[in-house]
Design goal:
The chain has helices spanning 15-28, 38-58, 72-83, 98-109, 128-137, 158-166, 187-190, 252-268, 270-288, 318-329, 341-347, 365-381, and strands at 2-3, 66-69, 88-93, 113-118, 142-146, 171-175, 194-198, 210-214, 294-297, 309-313, 331-332, 334-336, 354-357. The protein is of the alpha/beta class. The strands form three sheets. It has a seven-stranded mixed beta sheet with strand order 2-8-7-6-5-3-4, with helices on both faces. Strands 9-10-13-12 form a four-stranded antiparallel beta sheet, with helices on one face. It is globular, with a radius of gyration of 21 Å. The two termini are 27 Å apart. The model has no long low-confidence stretch (mean pLDDT 96).
Length: 383
């Protein structure tokens, strides 16, 4: 079996991830911060370790400002709904995931915000000309930017975009679901206000884990309020971090696994992981680009990108290609709109979507060769 759906969920995980989760389930088992006994203290140390490792990976200066959620979607909702002011104008791009678009459209539908979209070309490049025109014409409260597209693999040039927002004191939220663990990230260097991430993709952790980093001075309202294990005598939410945002019993077993995934990524180094995944992606793109009837969507071959390849084949529906890859060749890929219909409208593949191949750190060049041969055979049989 060849697994090429790492953009949805990475697989396989490092053995240490399952070992850490098993160790928690069999030797710890308690809730962190809820009791005074040693098992509760052990659970608290596991959560603290995950927080420290996430801060180290993102080069975030204060681990208490790493807030855990169950995924990037919850993190983005916390950031957007917790910061958006009634009557404000908000800016995003035409290549965003539904985790960004849907909460923004909800606020727009409720008459709370005005939403403007920065156009992105089919290669994933932001139109700086239109962006500057919008910034000259309007005053914005928030900007939400996709760091890396789950459809095309394009990487947003945050170092060029964010300074434009800074001139207007716009709060910047970055969707890092596809980039955390896949490319090097430095919170201070990029000057990001809120960075949202998920644990089950390139951080190699289990599903049900994720979070966000809040820059000092950026404090959205929490999504939920309740028991935190701290200040239990008070009837109001404690305002110190991370407790202000982490009500309820956490996914401790998942965070134990996430800590192991983060440790693996930190020790392997993100730079080395990116080199390997980029080499796989470039080689597979080189093999696919000359197949008759096949169209690659996204950045040109050779440009720096994430390990995300979207393609279509003339006269074949993406679902049909995915079916053949699964049943005939034992290859796991994703087909359709990838929860990003606006991105597919941008690249011209709506409503059928694309076939998406997302190699991961544990894939090999031999697997890329086998994948290319299989797709060549499928494309040839349709002619």
């Amino acid at each position: 079996m060849i697994y090429l759906d790492n953009g949805a969920t990475s697989f396989p995980k490092p053995p240490a991830v399952m070992e850490a989760m098993t160790r928690y389930a069999t030797a710890v088992g308690a809730s962190p911060g809820r009791s005074g006994h040693r098992l509760a203290a052990d659970a608290g140390r596991l959560v603290f370790q995950a927080r420290e490792l996430a801060a180290s990976l993102l080069k975030a200066p204060d681990s208490s400002r790493i807030i855990f959620t169950k995924n990037a979607t919850e993190a983005l909702n916390l950031a957007i709904l917790g910061l958006a002011r009634s009557g404000s104008r908000i800016l995003t791009t035409t290549i965003e995931h539904n985790s960004v678009i849907r909460p923004l459209r909800y606020l727009e539908q409720q008459g709370q915000i005005i939403l403007d979209l920065i156009p992105v070309n089919p290669e994933g490049e932001v139109s700086f000309e239109v962006l500057q025109q919008l910034l000259n014409k309007h005053t914005y409260q928030l900007a939400i930017i996709n760091h890396g597209s789950n459809v095309t693999g394009s990487i947003s040039p945050l170092q060029e975009i964010i300074p434009l927002f800074r001139k207007q004191e716009i709060t910047v939220i970055v969707d890092g679901a596809q980039t955390a663990g896949a490319i090097p990230i430095d919170m201070d260097d990029l000057d990001i206000d809120i960075f949202c991430f998920t644990g089950h993709k390139s951080l190699l952790g289990p599903q049900g884990t994720g979070g966000l980093y809040l820059k000092s001075g950026i404090n959205p309202l929490p999504l939920i309020r309740g028991g935190t294990g701290s200040r239990s005598e008070a009837e109001y939410q404690p305002e110190f971090l991370p407790d202000y945002y982490e009500s309820g019993t956490p996914n401790t077993i998942g965070l134990a696994g996430l800590a192991a995934g983060l440790d693996f990524v930190n020790k392997s180094t993100v730079a080395a992981i990116h080199r390997h995944e980029y080499a796989l992606t470039r080689h597979l793109c080189e093999e696919l680009k000359n197949i008759p009837g096949l169209t690659l969507h996204g950045p040109p071959v050779g440009k720096d990108r994430l390990p995300v390849i979207s393609f279509t084949i003339d006269h074949l529906a993406p679902s049909e290609i995915g079916f053949h890859l699964d049943r005939q060749y034992d290859m796991m890929v994703r087909v359709g709109l990838h929860c990003a219909p606006l991105a597919h409208k941008t690249i011209g593949t709506f409503p059928r979507g694309t076939v998406r191949l997302t190699p991961g750190y544990f894939n090999t060049m031999e697997e890329m060769e086998k994948t290319a041969r299989a797709i060549r055979q499928i494309a040839g049989s349709s002619r």
